[in-house]
Structure prediction request, 639 residues.
Amino acid sequence: MSLIQAQNITRIYSLGDVELRALGGVTVTIDRGEFVAVMGPSGSGKSTFMNILGCLDKPTEGRYLVEGIDIGGLSRDDLAEIRNNKLGFVFQGFNLLSRTSALENVELPMLYNGHAARERHDRAREALRSVGLAGREDHHPNQLSGGQQQRVAIARALVNRAPIILADEPTGNLDTKTSREIMELLVRLNSDSGITIILVTHEHDIAAYSRRIIRFKDGVVVSDELTQKD
Amino acid sequence: MVNIPSTIRIAFRALRVNKMRSGLTMLGIIIGVAAVIAMVAVGAGASSKIAEQISSMGSNLLIILPGATTSGGVRMGAGTQPTLTMGDAEAIMRECPAVEAVAPTHNGVAQVVYSHMNWSTGVVGTTPSYLYIREWQLAGGRTFTAQDVKSATKAALVGRTVVENLFGDEDPVGKVIRIQNLPFTVLGVLAEKGQDARGHDQDDTIMIPITTAQKKLFGVQFPGMVRIITVKAKSIQDLAAAERQITELLKQRHRIGPKQDNDFTVRNLTQFMQAREESSKVMTLLLGAIASVSLLVGGIGIMNIMLVSVTERTREIGIRMAIGAKTWDIRLQFLIEALALSLLGGIIGIVIGVSASTIISRASGWPVIVSPLSVLLAFGFSGIVGMFFGFYPAYKASLLNPIDALRYE
Prediction:
């Protein structure tokens, strides 16, 4: 069974009388342990596709299955639970809670699935160590550099041991050197821990870290190919 | 499953971040709760004072005053024309079935001397049943008897204030005092009674047999004249019947025709005092209601701030939703914030309200009663206000679309 199965997905936004077809029949299958880059110009439907993969949105038609679970019939709260257990999000703008320490930011997903305080602490500490931020637990986001903030976000995505990390332009706000560090961290997580990573980017050298590139244009997949790795 | 302890922590952290704003929002509730408690305490104090006066007056009481006659077209006030007699009092006792006890009184003011001390006080000539009707105990000695009344003995019962002014620490029982130069033996000391409804000191009094007062001390315009007749009805339900029976009887005895004005007045003191107590209770309720309005306004303040807070933290809500917060996680977070504001405000309000009540009572000398019920009610009400006005913002937050919320700048 594939980890992610998107079968003939369409997504239509109704804006009054006008219907906007953001996705027009997308079929993609992603297996456990893959590292996939999603590319395409703005308006190509890649963000809509990511929202659906992230269970933040539902397809208008077609089926989307995560670990065999059909998203179509699920309630708002069921979707929240799937996001909590199976998906980790890394955003371009980091999206950490300000005025909240790094440790507490990482603990956040565990607040919503009933872990004991002790376990939350230990696991958050462990996650921060694994992204190289040991000793920064009590720093607040505004005391951390952009790269460090993105590491906190990655730790937060890891802490619930979700099998999938969805990264939406994770290096978009970072300089080249820091971008490389973040991408190397993601590659390491993929190869060492077998976490499936799906990454949206429009930079070729960032996409080059992946092993498969899916290109979108006008709401459909125009190419889906493996990258040449040496 | 909602993680309550950490939701509470999240809420309190959010409140700490905006200390000034949280404080000002709470102020509305603080003022409301403090006002409710202080107002109700003042009102309850007034009610209890009146209730105390009622019980010190004696229960189921009627007072018959002579007079209110018309002389040459000029109407005189009650008590101006002496018309009541000992015979009237005896007839009321005998013929009115709703009456339990009757005490005629004939009183005046007199100068009293003991050794080198002297004091001016009210002297009440009456019968032993007066003490029973007024529910007045003796603190020492014994009361005079019907026999004393019959033979017009020079016997006296002295009130607390008189004892203090004439005897100091001495025991007055058995001593001889001079009332307007007549020697009276003190038989007993009256128990302390305090102030009456008009603030008059009831302990500043001496009681003597009514016959002694009539024949030896104050004199009378005609034999057997009394100034006031005090009547105790059998029960509170019998008060109206007693009033009717007495009026009927006295009309007959005084030969008053159907077109003539009565030459006496029957006053239902108990009813009057109960009306006062009732009105002071209504007053308490009213004060409480007005104060609750400010509590309500405080609640609206909370709702206002919570709505602002939800808008400001749209992005935070989006993040929480994206990483797995469910509808009730978000709702509870904001509800608990609103509740924390209102309950914390409630506690501070209680402290301020109770201290304000104490200060009011110290400064004004009014009795002030902080009832645990009013504290509990104010606290509970502030909680309900927080729930009620917190729910809409919390509900609004929980309905946000995570995609839009994440994009919110």
Observations:
- Residues 4-226 of chain A form a domain with the Rossmann fold fold (CATH 3.40.50.300).
- DSSP finds seven helices and ten strands in chain A.
- Residues 176-193 of chain A form the longest helix (18 residues).
- The beta strands of chain A are 4-15, 18-30, 35-39, 61-66, 69-70, 87-90, 164-168, 196-200, 212-217, 220-226.
